[in-house]
Structures are given as C-alpha cells and as structure tokens.
Write a structure and sequence with these properties.
Blueprint: E1 4-10, H1 15-20, E2 31-37, E3 47-50, E4 57-65, E5 74-80, H2 81-87, E6 88-91, H3 93-99, H4 101-107
Antiparallel strand pairs: 1-2, 1-6, 2-4, 3-4, 4-5
Helix pairs in contact: 3-4
Length: 109
C-alpha cells in the first residue's frame, strides 16, 4: 500500500509489559499493527514536537489500535518516534494484512 509503512506492536492490557517487549518480524500472535503515513522516500509525512511522553518528543501521524488486543478496531492517532523505534518492529504489508485485518478494512473503506 503506497504511502504507509507498517510496524508490529505488542498488545497486552499491561502497558508495562508492552514497553518491555519488542515483537519479532514474523510474529502472528500477541501483536497489532501501526501504520505510519510516509512520503515517497519513506519519511513520515506528519511530524510534530510533543511533550508526551517526554519533553521535545517527535511524534508522527499513525493509524493504530484502539485497544491493546489482537485485531483491534483502529483510528487515526499519533505515536512518538522513540516508541516506534524502541518497541515496534517493521513488517511487510502482506504480514500486516494477516495479523491485523481490521486495519486494512479501515484503510480500504
């Protein structure tokens, strides 16, 4: 899908566990998908400075899970680049479709 880059995110109600756990590239269970809007060079389209979760934190426009559960409904959101880099794993569109079908239902509406 052009203009999007996909990342696996651990899903669990205990957010402390999520932040300690980085999914493997081909993991199918216990993960959701974050879609980041990117330009034709793979750079995030929308990026802004935020004070959450820490001062001067770069945040990007995303489409991600509403709940910490597998194949959760999704909405437009934002995620700190630091979070994506530290706790998420890049994956292919094909794998993202398999893991999080509701994300693609939303994207293709």
């Amino acid at each position: 899908m052009e203009g999007l880059r996909f990342y696996l995110e651990a899903v669990d109600k205990d957010k402390q566990w999520v932040k300690k756990y980085k999914p493997t590239r081909n993991q199918d269970q216990g993960v959701g998908v974050i879609a980041v809007n990117v330009d034709n060079k793979g750079r995030p389209l929308d990026k802004w400075l935020s004070s959450y979760p820490s001062e001067d934190c770069w945040t990007v426009s995303t489409i991600s899970s509403i709940y910490y559960k597998e194949n959760s409904p999704v909405c437009c959101s934002g995620a700190p680049l630091e979070y994506i880099g530290s706790y998420c794993t890049r994956t292919s569109e094909a794998h993202a479709r398999k893991v999080h079908p509701k994300l693609f239902e939303y994207l293709e509406e």
